[in-house]
Write a structure and sequence with these properties.
By secondary structure, the chain is α/β, with parallel strands linked by helices. It has two domains: 122 residues, Rossmann fold, CATH 3.40.50; 201 residues, Dihydrodipicolinate Reductase, domain 2 (2-Layer Sandwich), CATH 3.30.360. The longest helix is centred in the C-terminal third of the chain and has 19 residues. Pfam families: GFO_IDH_MocA, GFO_IDH_MocA_C3. InterPro entries: Gfo/Idh/MocA-like_OxRdtase_N, Gfo/Idh/MocA_Oxidoreductases, GFO_IDH_MocA-like_dom, NAD(P)-bd_dom_sf.
Length: 354
């Protein structure tokens, strides 16, 4: 099989730290085209990684007909760039948040189905060991009917959202996070779009449930949300408590905790502790054989899955519909917070569903 032609739209700090090196390390991928704004910075990327072509106009990159495209541009451009990449015939990985508007997210789901291309969202937790098998076992009735979910995520991102432009370990990176993306609420800046997009996607993936209604509160600093908490009603009538904050000190792994309680038992997942325990009503207790570091997130996993899928192998564990549910929840969560916690029905246009 011929090597896959890969293109990247939005070669900023994270694409250059994660997605591009992961693709460059594969023998079955050619780095064909790259796009970013700024001629000098674009040249640095092209020379660093050896792209065959570079342009500040993403249309010129897509005109070369890449097989796979990574969309890692600022949040507010995801819909435009992902739409163009799918219409050009590429399988795509879209960085999270998938989009800022629910309708746009569901339009991408529908478009990917129509053109027969894989659409992945960069939700790395879904690819960790045992996570997919836990999802399958829950779907098969491991803990009965899900009745309650608790999901909390605390990450070391305060300096991303409040002025220092990222972690100390990024100071040697090719680029730094762009304030216009991460600190402007109108552009999806803040913890909800930037970080809850991880934990919500993981929750929807594991439970197989859909969001129905949300009531929330948000803590703001300098007009940017840095902590969020919400009560969520799910499609089977279960209730979920979701929360998160940009509060983990630098140098420490993000805290991700997720408890799923059902009529027949409980799954308790402590990702930062590499721990998962299943407790069933019949008295059985199972502890998954996780080693230290097994649940340390691998941010390259989704882009590697993109290349695998384009080559006819692998699994899409972070599909577009989960990204759309996540965007819809965050959009309504922020609306509820702005209305002092008023319950908001979560938008889900049925004609965009799979």
């Amino acid at each position: 099989m011929m090597p896959l032609k890969a293109a990247v739209i939005g070669a900023g700090w994270f694409a250059c730290e994660c997605h591009i090196p992961a693709l460059a390390a594969r023998d079955d991928v050619i780095l064909d085209g790259v796009c970013r704004i700024g001629a000098a910075d674009l040249l640095r990327v092209r020379e660093r990684f050896g792209f065959a072509f570079a342009s500040e106009d993403y249309r010129e990159v897509l005109a070369r007909k890449p097989d796979i495209v990574v969309v890692a541009s600022p949040h507010k451009f995801h819909f435009e760039h992902a739409t163009a990449a799918l219409e050009a015939g590429a399988h795509i990985l879209c960085e999270k948040p998938m989009t800022l508007e629910p309708n746009e997210a569901w339009q991408l789901v529908r478009l990917a189905d129509r053109v027969g291309r894989h659409l992945l969202i960069a939700n790395s937790y879904n690819y960790l060991p045992h996570v997919a098998s836990i999802r399958d076992r829950i779907a098969a009735g491991l803990i009965g009917d899900i009745e309650h979910v608790m999901c909390s995520f605390i990450s070391a991102t305060r300096d991303v959202f409040l002025g220092a432009r990222g972690l100390d370990k990024w100071r040697a990176a090719l680029f730094r996070p762009d304030d216009a993306t991460w600190r402007d609420p109108a552009a999806g800046g803040g913890f909800a779009y930037g970080q809850l997009s991880h934990s919500l996607a993981l929750m929807f993936f594991l439970t197989g449930l859909e969001p129905v209604r949300v009531s929330s509160s948000t803590c703001y600093r300098n007009d940017v949300d840095i902590a969020d908490a919400a009560q969520l009603t799910l499609s089977n009538g279960a209730v979920a408590s979701i929360s998160g904050a940009a509060a983990m000190p630098q140098g420490h792994q993000a805290l991700m905790r997720l408890f799923i309680a059902g009529s027949g038992g409980l799954v308790a997942m402590d990702f930062d502790l590499d721990s998962c325990e299943i407790r069933l009503n019949n008295g059985d207790v199972e502890r998954l054989p996780l080693r230290a570091g097994d649940w340390t997130v691998d941010s390259a996993a989704p882009v590697l899955a993109l290349a695998d899928l384009a080559g006819g192998a692998g699994q899409n564990l972070s599909p577009g519909d989960i990204g759309a549910f996540t965007t819809s929840t965050i959009f309504s969560l922020l609306e509820s917070s702005a209305k002092d916690g008023q319950p908001i029905q979560i938008s889900e246009p049925l004609d965009f569903r799979r």
